[in-house]
Design brief:
Layout lengths: L7 E4 L3 H12 L4 E5 L12 E2 L1 H7 L5 H7 L1 E3 L1 E6 L3 E7 L12 E3 L2 H13 L4 E5 L2 E8 L2 E7 L5 E6 L1 E4 L6 H6 L3 E15 L13 E5 L5 E5 L4 E7 L5 H4 L2 H11 L8 E14 L3 E2 L2 E3 L5 E2 L7 H20 L6 H29 L3 H16 L1 H11 L2 H7 L4
Parallel strand pairs: 1-2, 1-12, 2-8, 5-14, 12-19
Antiparallel strand pairs: 3-7, 4-7, 5-6, 9-10, 10-11, 13-16, 13-17, 14-15, 15-16, 17-20, 18-19
Helix pairs in contact: 1-4, 1-8, 8-9, 10-11
Bound molecules: flavin-adenine dinucleotide (FAD).
Flavin-adenine dinucleotide binds next to helix 1, strand 2, strand 9, strand 17 and helix 8.
C-alpha cells in the first residue's frame, strides 16, 4: 500500500462521510473528517438498510451489531387503502444473493454512532466536530480545505483529496458550480412516529408497507420501538399547521381508528427533491451521498445509495494510492451517477406514481403487475434484486 503523504479530507460526518472514512482507515489511509455539528446528528431520517448495504458493512463488523439493534423484516408489502394487501414480497427468495436476505429497520443515527465510536478507537483518523467547511483550493499536488472552527476562527488544512459528503446543501458542490438539476416534489412529506402498534389493528400487516390511494397514499414503517407513518401533505400549509396535534390526530384516526388518542413521539415535515449533480468528480474533489443526489424516500434508497457511493469511491482511491491511474476515479462518476439516475431516481419516482395514481384502470394495471410478479418466483426474485439495490451494483461491473 502506498501511503499518501497527506490525509484524505472528508467534509461531513453523516453516514456517507463516516463509511468513507472507515473504509479508508481500514486500508491504512489517514483521514480527517470535518463536521459542522457539535456531535454526530441524531435526527430522524432513514431507517431502512437494504441487503447489499449490510453485505458491505459486514467488512467493518457492523452488520451484525446493526441487526442486534434493529428489526429484521423478512417481507414487505404493497397495499391499497381500499383493497388491503396487493402483494407481499418475500426477501427470503434472495437467500442465495446476499448474506442478509431481509430489510433491516434501524435508525441511521445508530450506524453513525457505531462508526463514530469505532473511528474514535482507531489511529489514523481524526474527527473534528464544530468545523464548518467554507471552501477549498486544489492543485496538482493536493487540496487545501478552508474551515471555521468552533470558536469562529478561520483555518485551513492540506490533504491529498477531498470527499464532499456534506449533504443536500453541500457548500462544496455550490463552490464547484455543479448543476443540480431535477425537480421538487409538489407535496410536503410528513413523517410521524407513534407508539401505536398498527400490526395489531391492520390485518396481516408487514413491518414495511407502501399503501396506494388516489387521494392520500402513505407508508407504514416499523422501527425497533415505534411505528412511522409517512403522509403526503399540502405544500401551501405552514409547518405549524401541518404538525398541529389535532390535525395529526385526525389524519391517524382516519387511517386506523384508535379509541385512545395516538401517542406521538416525533413529527417531521420536509420537502423532497429528485436531483442528480451533473458531475461527481472534479480533479481531487468528489461528491458523494446527498451532496451528489437526492430522491424521495419511497423505496429507502437515499442513505443506501450514498453508502454504496462511499464504498465505490474509497475502493478506487485505495487503488490509486496503490498505484492505479487516477483516471480510475472518473469511473466512480460513470458508475454511481448512472445508478442515481437509472435506478434510484427512476424507481423512487415510479413508486410515488404507483402509490398516488388517480386513474382507476392505471391503478388496477399496477396492482395486476405486482400480483403477477409475486406469483412467479423468477419475476419475484428479479423484482427484489432491483428494489434491494443488488442489481444496480451488479450492473455497475459493465460500466467502463
Ligand atoms: C427529514 C429527512 C427524512 C429522511 N428520511 C429518509 C427515509 O425515510 N429513507 C431514506 O432512505 N432516506 C431518508 N432521508 C435521506 C437520508 O437521511 C440521506 O440520504 C442520508 O442522510 C444521506 O447521508 P449523507 O451522509 O450523504 O448526508 P447527511 O446525512 O445529510 O450528512 C451530511 C453531514 O454533513 C454535515 N455538513 C453539512 N455542511 C457542512 C459543512 N459546511 N462543513 C462540515 N460539515 C457539514 C452535516 O452536519 C451532516 O452531518 C431523509 C432525509 C431527511 C432530511
Amino acid at each position: 500500500m502506498g501511503t499518501p503523504s497527506s490525509p484524505v479530507i472528508i467534509s461531513g460526518a453523516g453516514p456517507v462521510g463516516l463509511v468513507a472514512a472507515r473504509n479508508l482507515n481500514q486500508a491504512g489511509i489517514p483521514v480527517i473528517i470535518l463536521e459542522k455539528s457539535a456531535t454526530v446528528p441524531k435526527d430522524l431520517r432513514a431507517s431502512t438498510f437494504h441487503p447489499p448495504t449490510l453485505d458491505m458493512l459486514a467488512k467493518f463488523n457492523l452488520s451484525d451489531r446493526l441487526v442486534e439493534q434493529g428489526l429484521v423484516c423478512p417481507d414487505w408489502q404493497y397495499r391499497d387503502r381500499d383493497e388491503g394487501i396487493v402483494a407481499t414480497f418475500d426477501l427470503g427468495v434472495l437467500s442465495e444473493d446476499t448474506d442478509y436476505p431481509f430489510r433491516l429497520q434501524c435508525e441511521q443515527w445508530k450506524l453513525s454512532e457505531m462508526l463514530r465510536a469505532d473511528l474514535d478507537a482507531t489511529d489514523g483518523v481524526e474527527l473534528r466536530y464544530g468545523h464548518s467547511v467554507t471552501g477549498f483550493r486544489q492543485d496538482d499536488d493536493g487540496v487545501t480545505v478552508l474551515f471555521t472552527d468552533p470558536e469562529g476562527d478561520e483555518g485551513e488544512i492540506k490533504g491529498s483529496y477531498l470527499i464532499a459528503a456534506d449533504g443536500a446543501h453541500s457548500p462544496i458542490r455550490k463552490q464547484l458550480g455543479v448543476a443540480f438539476d431535477g425537480l421538487t416534489i409538489p407535496e410536503i412529506f410528513l413523517s410521524i412516529s407513534t407508539t401505536f402498534d398498527f400490526a395489531e389493528h391492520i390485518e396481516q400487516l408487514s413491518p414495511i408497507a407502501y399503501v396506494s390511494d388516489p387521494s392520500e397514499w402513505l407508508v407504514l414503517l416499523r422501527t425497533p420501538t415505534l411505528w412511522r407513518v409517512l403522509l403526503p401533505t399540502d405544500p401551501t400549509l405552514t409547518d405549524e399547521q401541518i404538525k398541529a396535534p389535532e390535525v395529526i390526530e385526525k389524519r391517524l384516526q382516519d387511517l386506523c381508528p384508535n379509541p385512545e388518542a395516538y401517542e406521538i413521539k416525533h413529527a417531521t415535515a420536509y420537502r423532497v427533491h429528485e436531483r442528480v449533480a451533473d458531475s461527481y468528480v472534479h480533479g481531487r474533489v468528489f461528491l458523494a451521498g446527498d451532496a451528489a443526489h437526492l430522491n424521495n424516500p419511497l423505496g429507502g434508497m437515499g442513505m443506501n445509495g450514498g453508502i454504496h457511493d462511499a464504498m465505490n469511491l474509497t475502493e478506487k482511491l485505495i487503488n490509486v494510492f496503490d498505484g492505479a491511474s487516477s483516471d480510475t476515479l472518473n469511473r466512480y462518476e460513470r458508475q454511481r451517477r448512472k445508478v442515481a439516475l437509472e435506478t434510484v431516481q427512476a424507481t423512487t419516482l415510479r413508486n410515488r406514481k404507483m402509490m398516488s395514481e388517480t386513474n382507476a384502470s392505471a391503478r388496477k394495471a399496477y396492482h395486476d403487475e405486482l400480483r403477477g410478479i409475486v406469483a412467479d418466483r423468477a419475476k419475484h426474485r428479479a423484482h427484489l434484486l432491483k428494489s434491494s439495490m443488488i442489481q444496480s451494483l451488479r450492473d455497475l461491473e459493465t460500466v467502463a
